[in-house]
Design a protein that fits this description.
The chain has about 230 residues and is an alpha+beta fold. A hairpin with a 3-residue loop joins strand 4 (about 110) and strand 5. The longest helix has 14 residues, at about 25-40. The two termini are about 30 Å apart. The relative contact order is 0.14. The chain is built from seven helices and six strands. The protein binds zinc ion (ZN). Zinc ion binds near residues 60, 65, 67 and 130.
Length: about 230
Amino acid sequence: MTVATRFQSWNRGLEPGAPYDGASPNLQALATYCHARWKLKSLGIYNRRPVRGGTAWSSHAFGAAVDLGFGERHGGPGIAVLEADILPWLIQHSAELGIQRIHHYQRTRYWEAGRGWVEKSPGQGHDWIHVETTREAWADASSVRERLVESPQSPASATSAPTAPMYPGRPLKRSSTGASVKLIQARLGLTADGKFGPQTEAAVKSWQTNNGLQADGIVGPATWARLFGT
Ligand SMILES: [Zn+2]
């Protein structure tokens, strides 16, 4: 399972310019995908309001959370599909999707990056889930399909025209995880475990040096383009 970066609260006054004044493009892309695939209904992202019953800003005041209705009154797929298919998918891809927290009100539990499920009620039994973006992914406007790049082709199918994977929309560096990291590792001849650790960083630096790039160990757009010939 791929686990996202650590949870970092949106509503503890950490943001000097708080609140923001619009919806996260990352969550807009996620909502579009989830509606097309599962008929989840977006009940809103940006809402300039404090947390319920408190004075701190809600994550919605940063446009940093989307409420996705799964109940039938929203035309949604119902809780069975949510739990069997949607929640496992969101958690499995939480790193690529930039998800740090999911509130599952009807089961009185929430999921948090770096922690897993926490058996504590985040709310009032609503028939929607609340999905929070990480800061790193807040402005990522690339589509979900672009981010969930396929694994490298097996040798058996390598004769078909290879498709260069698209840059995932954010730099990959130490502690990044996910499918894009696997692609980099496979390209560098490393074990593709999807975890950007010290070995991967050293291999990236070495490759950058050999290819006339700044050896910072970070796979940004330029390094990505050179690695995959895009
Ligand atoms: Zn919410």
